[in-house]
Amino acid sequence: MKKWFNASMAFVVLMLVITACAGNSNDNEAQPSPSGSEASETAAESSANAEETVTLKYVLPGTEPKEWQAVNEEVNKKLLADGVNVQIEKEYIDWGAWEQKLNLKLSTGEDFDMFHVMNDWISLANYIGRGAVKDVGAEIEEFGPNLKTVIPESVWSGVIKDGKTYAIPAYWYEPAVDGSFTANRIILNKAGVTEVPKTQEEMLAAMEKVMASEAGATKPYLPIRGGLRDASDVLHRAYDSYPFAVKDKIAFIGQDGKVKNWVESDEFKNDANFFRQAYAKKLTSPDILVIKQEQITKQIDSANWAFMFGTPDKREEMQKTFPEMKDEDFTLSRLNPEKPHYRMMNAKNVNAVAANSKHPEAAVKFLNWLYASQENFDLFVYGIEGKTYNKVGDRGVESIKGADGVNLYLQDEWMIGNLNFIRYNPNLLSAKKALFQADPEAQTFYAADFFFDPSEVKAEMANVQSVLTSDVMPIYDGVVEYDKGIKGALDKLKAAGVDKVIAEYQKQLDAYKASQK
Protein backbone atom coordinates (compact mmCIF):
# COMPACT_ATOMS: atom_id res chain seq x y z
CA MET A 1 0.00 0.00 0.00
CA LYS A 2 1.18 3.33 -0.18
CA LYS A 3 3.26 3.54 2.76
CA TRP A 4 2.95 7.24 2.97
CA PHE A 5 -0.53 6.29 2.82
CA ASN A 6 -1.82 9.40 1.31
CA ALA A 7 0.75 11.43 -0.54
CA SER A 8 -1.36 13.81 -2.45
CA MET A 9 -0.67 17.24 -3.95
CA ALA A 10 -2.50 18.96 -6.74
CA PHE A 11 -2.45 21.09 -9.83
CA VAL A 12 -3.13 22.29 -13.31
CA VAL A 13 -4.37 22.67 -16.88
CA LEU A 14 -7.46 21.87 -18.87
CA MET A 15 -7.33 21.08 -22.53
CA LEU A 16 -10.56 22.08 -24.28
CA VAL A 17 -11.13 19.94 -27.34
CA ILE A 18 -13.05 21.66 -30.13
CA THR A 19 -14.19 19.53 -33.03
CA ALA A 20 -15.43 20.91 -36.28
CA CYS A 21 -19.16 20.62 -36.77
CA ALA A 22 -20.40 18.60 -39.69
CA GLY A 23 -22.94 20.21 -42.02
CA ASN A 24 -26.61 19.42 -41.45
CA SER A 25 -28.08 17.81 -44.55
CA ASN A 26 -31.29 19.80 -43.94
CA ASP A 27 -29.36 23.08 -43.97
CA ASN A 28 -29.44 25.02 -47.23
CA GLU A 29 -26.63 27.34 -46.18
CA ALA A 30 -23.06 26.33 -46.97
CA GLN A 31 -21.04 25.35 -43.88
CA PRO A 32 -17.75 27.13 -43.15
CA SER A 33 -14.57 25.14 -43.62
CA PRO A 34 -12.81 24.20 -40.36
CA SER A 35 -9.76 26.20 -39.32
CA GLY A 36 -6.32 24.65 -39.65
CA SER A 37 -6.23 23.51 -36.01
CA GLU A 38 -9.77 22.20 -36.19
CA ALA A 39 -9.04 20.32 -39.40
CA SER A 40 -5.93 18.79 -37.85
CA GLU A 41 -7.88 17.77 -34.77
CA THR A 42 -10.64 16.23 -36.86
CA ALA A 43 -8.09 14.32 -38.90
CA ALA A 44 -6.50 13.00 -35.71
CA GLU A 45 -9.85 11.78 -34.47
CA SER A 46 -10.55 10.15 -37.82
CA SER A 47 -7.18 8.42 -37.66
CA ALA A 48 -7.91 7.12 -34.17
CA ASN A 49 -11.34 5.95 -35.23
CA ALA A 50 -9.84 4.13 -38.21
CA GLU A 51 -8.41 1.69 -35.70
CA GLU A 52 -10.56 -0.15 -33.22
CA THR A 53 -11.12 2.10 -30.22
CA VAL A 54 -10.73 0.04 -27.07
CA THR A 55 -11.71 0.73 -23.47
CA LEU A 56 -8.97 0.52 -20.86
CA LYS A 57 -10.44 -0.50 -17.51
CA TYR A 58 -8.17 0.69 -14.69
CA VAL A 59 -8.81 -0.77 -11.22
CA LEU A 60 -7.41 1.18 -8.27
CA PRO A 61 -8.02 1.63 -4.53
CA GLY A 62 -9.96 4.54 -3.06
CA THR A 63 -13.20 6.44 -3.51
CA GLU A 64 -14.30 7.90 -6.84
CA PRO A 65 -13.93 11.71 -6.79
CA LYS A 66 -17.10 13.69 -7.37
CA GLU A 67 -15.95 15.17 -10.69
CA TRP A 68 -14.22 12.11 -12.14
CA GLN A 69 -16.96 11.54 -14.72
CA ALA A 70 -16.59 15.09 -16.06
CA VAL A 71 -12.80 14.74 -16.12
CA ASN A 72 -13.13 11.29 -17.69
CA GLU A 73 -15.10 12.76 -20.59
CA GLU A 74 -12.43 15.39 -21.28
CA VAL A 75 -9.60 12.86 -21.00
CA ASN A 76 -11.26 10.54 -23.50
CA LYS A 77 -11.87 13.43 -25.91
CA LYS A 78 -8.21 14.40 -25.67
CA LEU A 79 -7.05 10.83 -26.27
CA LEU A 80 -9.01 10.65 -29.52
CA ALA A 81 -7.93 14.14 -30.55
CA ASP A 82 -4.31 13.05 -30.10
CA GLY A 83 -4.84 9.98 -32.27
CA VAL A 84 -4.80 7.45 -29.42
CA ASN A 85 -7.45 4.77 -29.90
CA VAL A 86 -7.99 4.23 -26.17
CA GLN A 87 -10.80 5.31 -23.85
CA ILE A 88 -10.11 5.00 -20.13
CA GLU A 89 -12.56 3.87 -17.49
CA LYS A 90 -11.70 3.73 -13.77
CA GLU A 91 -13.11 1.36 -11.18
CA TYR A 92 -12.43 2.46 -7.62
CA ILE A 93 -12.48 -0.16 -4.86
CA ASP A 94 -12.90 0.89 -1.24
CA TRP A 95 -9.69 0.56 0.75
CA GLY A 96 -11.26 -1.86 3.20
CA ALA A 97 -12.16 -4.29 0.42
CA TRP A 98 -9.21 -3.68 -1.91
CA GLU A 99 -7.23 -6.87 -1.46
CA GLN A 100 -10.26 -9.16 -1.33
CA LYS A 101 -12.04 -7.71 -4.35
CA LEU A 102 -8.92 -7.42 -6.50
CA ASN A 103 -7.97 -11.03 -5.77
CA LEU A 104 -11.48 -12.12 -6.70
CA LYS A 105 -11.27 -10.27 -10.01
CA LEU A 106 -7.92 -11.85 -10.80
CA SER A 107 -8.88 -15.37 -9.77
CA THR A 108 -12.17 -15.38 -11.69
CA GLY A 109 -10.64 -13.92 -14.85
CA GLU A 110 -12.84 -10.84 -14.80
CA ASP A 111 -12.44 -8.64 -17.84
CA PHE A 112 -10.29 -5.65 -16.87
CA ASP A 113 -6.93 -4.35 -18.00
CA MET A 114 -4.73 -2.44 -15.57
CA PHE A 115 -4.47 -2.33 -11.79
CA HIS A 116 -2.35 -0.58 -9.22
CA VAL A 117 0.28 -2.47 -7.22
CA MET A 118 1.71 -1.24 -3.92
CA ASN A 119 4.93 -3.17 -3.41
CA ASP A 120 4.92 -2.34 0.29
CA TRP A 121 1.48 -3.94 0.64
CA ILE A 122 1.17 -6.89 -1.78
CA SER A 123 4.25 -7.10 -3.98
CA LEU A 124 4.43 -7.30 -7.75
CA ALA A 125 6.39 -10.53 -7.28
CA ASN A 126 3.37 -12.00 -5.53
CA TYR A 127 1.14 -11.24 -8.52
CA ILE A 128 3.74 -12.60 -10.94
CA GLY A 129 3.96 -15.84 -9.00
CA ARG A 130 0.20 -16.24 -9.27
CA GLY A 131 0.28 -15.67 -13.01
CA ALA A 132 -1.88 -12.58 -12.54
CA VAL A 133 0.08 -10.10 -14.68
CA LYS A 134 1.31 -9.90 -18.27
CA ASP A 135 4.77 -9.24 -19.61
CA VAL A 136 4.36 -5.95 -21.50
CA GLY A 137 7.93 -5.59 -22.73
CA ALA A 138 6.96 -5.92 -26.40
CA GLU A 139 4.14 -3.39 -26.03
CA ILE A 140 6.48 -0.89 -24.38
CA GLU A 141 8.98 -1.28 -27.21
CA GLU A 142 6.27 -0.62 -29.80
CA PHE A 143 3.97 1.87 -28.09
CA GLY A 144 5.90 3.34 -25.14
CA PRO A 145 8.80 5.57 -26.22
CA ASN A 146 7.83 8.26 -23.71
CA LEU A 147 7.85 5.73 -20.87
CA LYS A 148 11.49 4.94 -21.48
CA THR A 149 12.32 8.65 -21.58
CA VAL A 150 10.67 9.82 -18.35
CA ILE A 151 11.28 6.76 -16.15
CA PRO A 152 14.95 6.16 -15.22
CA GLU A 153 16.60 2.83 -15.93
CA SER A 154 17.23 2.31 -12.21
CA VAL A 155 13.48 2.46 -11.58
CA TRP A 156 12.66 0.10 -14.44
CA SER A 157 14.94 -2.48 -12.83
CA GLY A 158 12.33 -2.93 -10.12
CA VAL A 159 9.77 -4.40 -12.56
CA ILE A 160 11.98 -6.46 -14.88
CA LYS A 161 12.66 -10.14 -14.22
CA ASP A 162 14.56 -12.42 -16.61
CA GLY A 163 14.14 -9.90 -19.40
CA LYS A 164 10.39 -9.61 -18.92
CA THR A 165 8.70 -6.33 -17.98
CA TYR A 166 5.77 -6.93 -15.66
CA ALA A 167 4.62 -3.38 -14.89
CA ILE A 168 5.15 0.33 -15.54
CA PRO A 169 6.65 2.12 -12.52
CA ALA A 170 5.33 5.36 -11.06
CA TYR A 171 8.49 7.46 -10.73
CA TRP A 172 7.07 9.85 -8.19
CA TYR A 173 9.50 10.23 -5.25
CA GLU A 174 13.00 9.84 -3.79
CA PRO A 175 13.08 6.33 -2.23
CA ALA A 176 15.74 7.33 0.31
CA VAL A 177 13.01 9.21 2.22
CA ASP A 178 11.61 5.83 3.26
CA GLY A 179 12.45 5.19 6.88
CA SER A 180 11.68 8.78 7.88
CA PHE A 181 9.02 10.10 10.22
CA THR A 182 7.49 13.56 10.69
CA ALA A 183 7.40 15.17 14.12
CA ASN A 184 4.60 17.58 15.08
CA ARG A 185 6.49 20.03 17.26
CA ILE A 186 3.32 21.91 18.21
CA ILE A 187 1.88 18.90 20.01
CA LEU A 188 5.30 17.84 21.32
CA ASN A 189 6.11 21.28 22.76
CA LYS A 190 2.71 21.46 24.40
CA ALA A 191 3.58 18.23 26.23
CA GLY A 192 7.01 19.52 27.22
CA VAL A 193 8.95 17.49 24.63
CA THR A 194 11.50 19.88 23.13
CA GLU A 195 13.77 17.43 21.30
CA VAL A 196 12.79 15.15 18.44
CA PRO A 197 13.54 11.56 19.50
CA LYS A 198 16.55 9.75 18.12
CA THR A 199 15.76 6.31 19.54
CA GLN A 200 12.73 4.05 19.82
CA GLU A 201 12.72 4.51 23.58
CA GLU A 202 12.68 8.29 23.25
CA MET A 203 9.82 8.09 20.75
CA LEU A 204 7.70 5.96 23.07
CA ALA A 205 8.46 8.23 26.02
CA ALA A 206 7.53 11.32 24.01
CA MET A 207 4.21 9.78 22.93
CA GLU A 208 3.43 8.90 26.55
CA LYS A 209 3.96 12.51 27.59
CA VAL A 210 1.73 13.70 24.76
CA MET A 211 -1.06 11.31 25.68
CA ALA A 212 -0.84 12.32 29.34
CA SER A 213 -1.27 15.98 28.40
CA GLU A 214 -4.18 15.48 25.98
CA ALA A 215 -7.61 15.90 27.55
CA GLY A 216 -9.67 15.89 24.35
CA ALA A 217 -11.87 13.07 23.16
CA THR A 218 -9.85 12.62 19.94
CA LYS A 219 -6.48 11.17 20.88
CA PRO A 220 -3.29 11.80 18.88
CA TYR A 221 -2.53 8.12 18.33
CA LEU A 222 0.40 7.03 16.21
CA PRO A 223 -1.52 6.87 12.90
CA ILE A 224 -0.88 3.37 11.64
CA ARG A 225 -3.28 0.76 10.33
CA GLY A 226 -2.77 -2.89 11.17
CA GLY A 227 -3.22 -5.83 8.88
CA LEU A 228 -0.95 -6.30 5.89
CA ARG A 229 1.16 -3.17 6.27
CA ASP A 230 4.83 -3.56 5.49
CA ALA A 231 7.58 -4.05 8.05
CA SER A 232 8.24 -0.68 9.67
CA ASP A 233 11.51 0.63 8.24
CA VAL A 234 11.29 3.70 10.50
CA LEU A 235 12.25 1.43 13.41
CA HIS A 236 14.93 -0.54 11.59
CA ARG A 237 17.55 2.18 11.69
CA ALA A 238 17.85 1.50 15.44
CA TYR A 239 19.30 -1.99 14.96
CA ASP A 240 22.96 -2.98 14.63
CA SER A 241 22.02 -5.15 11.64
CA TYR A 242 20.85 -2.11 9.63
CA PRO A 243 20.73 -1.83 6.65
CA PHE A 244 18.62 -4.84 5.85
CA ALA A 245 15.54 -5.43 3.71
CA VAL A 246 12.29 -7.24 4.44
CA LYS A 247 10.62 -8.65 1.34
CA ASP A 248 6.97 -9.73 1.19
CA LYS A 249 6.85 -9.61 5.00
CA ILE A 250 8.54 -13.03 4.81
CA ALA A 251 12.23 -12.76 3.96
CA PHE A 252 14.87 -10.86 5.96
CA ILE A 253 17.79 -10.03 3.65
CA GLY A 254 20.92 -9.04 5.57
CA GLN A 255 24.07 -7.20 4.60
CA ASP A 256 25.90 -10.55 4.49
CA GLY A 257 23.68 -11.86 1.70
CA LYS A 258 21.91 -14.32 3.96
CA VAL A 259 18.13 -14.76 3.90
CA LYS A 260 16.18 -15.80 6.97
CA ASN A 261 12.59 -16.00 8.12
CA TRP A 262 11.63 -12.43 9.07
CA VAL A 263 9.18 -13.60 11.74
CA GLU A 264 11.94 -15.67 13.42
CA SER A 265 14.38 -12.76 13.50
CA ASP A 266 15.40 -10.64 16.49
CA GLU A 267 14.47 -7.60 14.43
CA PHE A 268 10.87 -8.78 14.09
CA LYS A 269 10.76 -9.40 17.84
CA ASN A 270 12.08 -5.89 18.52
CA ASP A 271 9.55 -4.30 16.17
CA ALA A 272 6.74 -6.28 17.79
CA ASN A 273 7.94 -5.22 21.23
CA PHE A 274 7.83 -1.55 20.19
CA PHE A 275 4.28 -1.85 18.90
CA ARG A 276 3.22 -3.95 21.91
CA GLN A 277 4.40 -1.19 24.24
CA ALA A 278 2.62 1.39 22.12
CA TYR A 279 -0.60 -0.63 22.06
CA ALA A 280 -0.53 -1.48 25.78
CA LYS A 281 0.10 2.17 26.68
CA LYS A 282 -2.72 3.25 24.36
CA LEU A 283 -0.38 5.12 22.01
CA THR A 284 -1.86 3.36 18.98
CA SER A 285 -5.55 2.96 18.23
CA PRO A 286 -7.32 0.22 20.20
CA ASP A 287 -8.94 -0.64 16.85
CA ILE A 288 -5.63 -0.91 14.98
CA LEU A 289 -6.54 -4.22 13.30
CA VAL A 290 -9.90 -3.05 11.97
CA ILE A 291 -9.54 0.72 11.60
CA LYS A 292 -10.24 1.93 8.05
CA GLN A 293 -7.74 3.71 5.86
CA GLU A 294 -10.14 6.64 5.56
CA GLN A 295 -9.96 7.12 9.34
CA ILE A 296 -6.17 7.08 9.29
CA THR A 297 -6.15 9.56 6.41
CA LYS A 298 -8.48 11.91 8.26
CA GLN A 299 -6.27 11.80 11.35
CA ILE A 300 -3.12 12.48 9.35
CA ASP A 301 -4.73 15.33 7.44
CA SER A 302 -5.86 16.97 10.68
CA ALA A 303 -2.31 16.76 12.14
CA ASN A 304 -3.69 15.10 15.26
CA TRP A 305 -0.50 13.17 16.01
CA ALA A 306 2.88 13.65 17.63
CA PHE A 307 4.65 11.49 15.04
CA MET A 308 3.63 9.93 11.76
CA PHE A 309 5.64 7.42 9.75
CA GLY A 310 6.16 9.19 6.45
CA THR A 311 5.27 12.72 5.42
CA PRO A 312 2.06 14.77 5.78
CA ASP A 313 0.43 16.28 2.76
CA LYS A 314 -2.56 18.54 3.26
CA ARG A 315 -1.29 21.68 4.90
CA GLU A 316 -4.62 23.45 4.45
CA GLU A 317 -6.39 20.72 6.42
CA MET A 318 -3.68 20.77 9.08
CA GLN A 319 -4.14 24.53 9.45
CA LYS A 320 -7.75 23.98 10.45
CA THR A 321 -6.37 22.31 13.58
CA PHE A 322 -3.38 24.63 13.99
CA PRO A 323 -4.17 27.99 12.30
CA GLU A 324 -0.86 29.53 13.38
CA MET A 325 1.32 26.60 12.30
CA LYS A 326 4.64 27.30 10.59
CA ASP A 327 6.68 25.18 8.22
CA GLU A 328 9.28 24.46 10.89
CA ASP A 329 6.63 23.05 13.23
CA PHE A 330 6.66 19.83 11.19
CA THR A 331 10.10 18.33 10.71
CA LEU A 332 11.21 15.27 8.79
CA SER A 333 13.45 13.14 10.99
CA ARG A 334 15.04 9.71 11.32
CA LEU A 335 15.86 7.52 14.26
CA ASN A 336 19.60 7.12 14.70
CA PRO A 337 20.18 10.03 12.30
CA GLU A 338 23.92 9.46 12.25
CA LYS A 339 23.44 6.39 10.06
CA PRO A 340 23.47 6.67 6.23
CA HIS A 341 20.32 6.96 4.13
CA TYR A 342 19.48 3.99 1.92
CA ARG A 343 17.25 3.31 -1.04
CA MET A 344 15.72 -0.06 -0.25
CA MET A 345 13.33 -0.22 -3.21
CA ASN A 346 13.37 1.56 -6.55
CA ALA A 347 9.81 0.90 -7.70
CA LYS A 348 7.38 1.05 -4.80
CA ASN A 349 4.24 1.89 -6.78
CA VAL A 350 3.61 0.38 -10.21
CA ASN A 351 0.75 -0.23 -12.62
CA ALA A 352 0.44 -3.75 -13.98
CA VAL A 353 -1.56 -5.25 -16.83
CA ALA A 354 -3.88 -8.06 -15.74
CA ALA A 355 -3.15 -11.46 -17.26
CA ASN A 356 -6.67 -11.67 -18.64
CA SER A 357 -6.52 -8.28 -20.40
CA LYS A 358 -7.56 -8.55 -24.04
CA HIS A 359 -5.76 -5.32 -24.94
CA PRO A 360 -2.44 -5.08 -23.05
CA GLU A 361 -1.24 -2.48 -25.55
CA ALA A 362 -4.03 -0.12 -24.41
CA ALA A 363 -2.44 0.37 -20.99
CA VAL A 364 0.92 1.16 -22.57
CA LYS A 365 -0.62 3.54 -25.11
CA PHE A 366 -2.51 5.36 -22.37
CA LEU A 367 0.51 5.75 -20.08
CA ASN A 368 2.67 6.79 -23.04
CA TRP A 369 0.06 9.48 -23.80
CA LEU A 370 -0.08 10.52 -20.13
CA TYR A 371 3.67 11.15 -20.03
CA ALA A 372 3.80 12.77 -23.48
CA SER A 373 3.14 16.29 -22.20
CA GLN A 374 2.42 18.39 -19.16
CA GLU A 375 -1.07 19.15 -20.42
CA ASN A 376 -1.97 15.48 -20.72
CA PHE A 377 -0.64 14.77 -17.25
CA ASP A 378 -2.45 17.77 -15.78
CA LEU A 379 -5.75 16.78 -17.33
CA PHE A 380 -5.72 13.22 -16.02
CA VAL A 381 -4.12 13.89 -12.63
CA TYR A 382 -5.53 17.31 -11.66
CA GLY A 383 -8.61 17.54 -13.87
CA ILE A 384 -10.26 20.58 -15.42
CA GLU A 385 -8.65 23.95 -14.80
CA GLY A 386 -11.05 26.34 -13.13
CA LYS A 387 -13.39 23.52 -12.20
CA THR A 388 -11.30 21.06 -10.18
CA TYR A 389 -8.05 23.01 -9.70
CA ASN A 390 -6.31 26.32 -10.32
CA LYS A 391 -2.73 27.04 -11.31
CA VAL A 392 -0.53 28.95 -8.89
CA GLY A 393 2.65 30.28 -10.46
CA ASP A 394 4.80 28.08 -12.64
CA ARG A 395 4.59 24.77 -10.78
CA GLY A 396 1.96 25.38 -8.12
CA VAL A 397 -1.55 24.03 -7.83
CA GLU A 398 -4.60 24.45 -5.65
CA SER A 399 -7.35 21.87 -5.69
CA ILE A 400 -10.93 23.10 -5.66
CA LYS A 401 -12.96 21.50 -2.91
CA GLY A 402 -16.64 20.76 -2.55
CA ALA A 403 -18.87 21.88 0.31
CA ASP A 404 -17.68 18.85 2.27
CA GLY A 405 -14.06 20.02 2.09
CA VAL A 406 -13.03 17.14 -0.18
CA ASN A 407 -11.18 17.70 -3.45
CA LEU A 408 -13.62 17.64 -6.35
CA TYR A 409 -11.03 15.65 -8.27
CA LEU A 410 -7.47 14.43 -7.86
CA GLN A 411 -5.74 11.32 -9.14
CA ASP A 412 -3.21 10.46 -6.43
CA GLU A 413 0.28 11.07 -7.82
CA TRP A 414 1.76 8.22 -5.82
CA MET A 415 -0.19 5.79 -8.00
CA ILE A 416 0.72 7.13 -11.42
CA GLY A 417 2.78 10.30 -11.03
CA ASN A 418 6.13 11.21 -12.53
CA LEU A 419 8.67 13.68 -11.15
CA ASN A 420 8.96 15.31 -14.56
CA PHE A 421 5.32 16.44 -14.40
CA ILE A 422 4.09 16.49 -10.79
CA ARG A 423 2.92 19.92 -9.69
CA TYR A 424 3.32 21.11 -6.14
CA ASN A 425 0.98 22.83 -3.78
CA PRO A 426 2.64 26.22 -3.14
CA ASN A 427 2.08 25.70 0.57
CA LEU A 428 3.71 22.28 0.62
CA LEU A 429 5.58 21.63 3.84
CA SER A 430 9.34 21.19 3.62
CA ALA A 431 8.84 17.78 5.22
CA LYS A 432 6.82 16.83 2.16
CA LYS A 433 9.08 18.49 -0.42
CA ALA A 434 11.84 16.06 0.57
CA LEU A 435 9.93 13.37 -1.31
CA PHE A 436 10.55 15.15 -4.59
CA GLN A 437 14.17 16.15 -4.11
CA ALA A 438 17.10 13.88 -4.94
CA ASP A 439 19.22 12.87 -1.94
CA PRO A 440 22.85 13.14 -3.13
CA GLU A 441 24.17 11.32 -0.06
CA ALA A 442 21.83 8.35 -0.30
CA GLN A 443 23.21 4.88 -0.92
CA THR A 444 21.39 2.09 -2.73
CA PHE A 445 21.06 -1.17 -0.80
CA TYR A 446 22.55 -4.02 -2.82
CA ALA A 447 19.24 -5.89 -2.97
CA ALA A 448 17.07 -2.89 -3.86
CA ASP A 449 16.52 -4.29 -7.35
CA PHE A 450 16.40 -7.94 -6.35
CA PHE A 451 13.22 -9.36 -7.81
CA PHE A 452 11.90 -12.56 -6.26
CA ASP A 453 10.03 -14.96 -8.55
CA PRO A 454 7.65 -17.06 -6.39
CA SER A 455 6.53 -19.37 -9.19
CA GLU A 456 8.46 -22.34 -7.73
CA VAL A 457 6.79 -21.89 -4.33
CA LYS A 458 3.42 -20.54 -5.40
CA ALA A 459 1.33 -22.72 -3.10
CA GLU A 460 3.63 -22.18 -0.14
CA MET A 461 3.60 -18.40 -0.65
CA ALA A 462 -0.19 -18.34 -0.61
CA ASN A 463 -0.32 -20.44 2.55
CA VAL A 464 2.32 -18.32 4.27
CA GLN A 465 0.51 -15.09 3.37
CA SER A 466 -2.65 -16.49 4.92
CA VAL A 467 -0.83 -17.20 8.20
CA LEU A 468 0.74 -13.75 8.15
CA THR A 469 -2.72 -12.21 8.06
CA SER A 470 -4.35 -14.43 10.66
CA ASP A 471 -1.56 -15.03 13.17
CA VAL A 472 1.52 -12.89 12.57
CA MET A 473 0.20 -9.37 12.04
CA PRO A 474 -1.73 -9.28 15.35
CA ILE A 475 1.63 -9.99 17.04
CA TYR A 476 3.50 -7.45 14.94
CA ASP A 477 0.88 -4.76 15.58
CA GLY A 478 1.14 -5.32 19.33
CA VAL A 479 -2.38 -6.64 19.88
CA VAL A 480 -1.11 -10.12 20.81
CA GLU A 481 1.91 -10.39 23.11
CA TYR A 482 4.97 -11.76 21.32
CA ASP A 483 5.73 -14.44 23.91
CA LYS A 484 2.14 -15.67 23.91
CA GLY A 485 1.64 -15.83 20.17
CA ILE A 486 4.95 -16.41 18.46
CA LYS A 487 5.31 -20.19 18.91
CA GLY A 488 1.89 -20.91 17.46
CA ALA A 489 2.47 -18.48 14.59
CA LEU A 490 5.88 -19.98 13.75
CA ASP A 491 4.48 -23.51 13.88
CA LYS A 492 1.78 -22.51 11.39
CA LEU A 493 4.35 -20.80 9.15
CA LYS A 494 6.48 -23.94 9.15
CA ALA A 495 3.45 -26.05 8.28
CA ALA A 496 2.59 -23.59 5.50
CA GLY A 497 6.02 -24.10 3.93
CA VAL A 498 7.93 -20.97 4.94
CA ASP A 499 11.27 -22.82 5.04
CA LYS A 500 10.87 -23.80 1.39
CA VAL A 501 10.06 -20.17 0.53
CA ILE A 502 13.16 -18.91 2.37
CA ALA A 503 15.36 -21.49 0.63
CA GLU A 504 14.03 -20.33 -2.74
CA TYR A 505 14.69 -16.72 -1.75
CA GLN A 506 18.29 -17.61 -0.87
CA LYS A 507 18.79 -19.47 -4.14
CA GLN A 508 17.52 -16.55 -6.20
CA LEU A 509 19.41 -13.92 -4.17
CA ASP A 510 22.66 -15.86 -4.68
CA ALA A 511 22.02 -15.94 -8.42
CA TYR A 512 21.19 -12.22 -8.42
CA LYS A 513 24.41 -11.34 -6.59
CA ALA A 514 26.45 -13.48 -8.97
CA SER A 515 24.88 -11.69 -11.94
CA GLN A 516 25.96 -8.31 -10.55
CA LYS A 517 29.68 -9.17 -10.48
UniProtKB/TrEMBL annotation:
Q: Does the keyword Electron transport apply?
A: no
Sequence ranges of Low complexity compositional bias: 35-50
Q: For the region Disordered, what residue ranges are annotated?
A: 26-50
Keywords annotated in UniProt: Signal
InterPro entries for the chain = Bact_solute-bd_prot1 (IPR050490), DUF3502 (IPR022627), SBP (IPR006059)
Domain (DUF3502) spans: 448-514
**What Gene3D superfamilies does its record include?**
Periplasmic binding protein-like II
Instruction: Specify the superkingdom.
Output: Bacteria
**So which residues are the signal peptide here?**
1-22
Name of this protein: Extracellular solute-binding protein
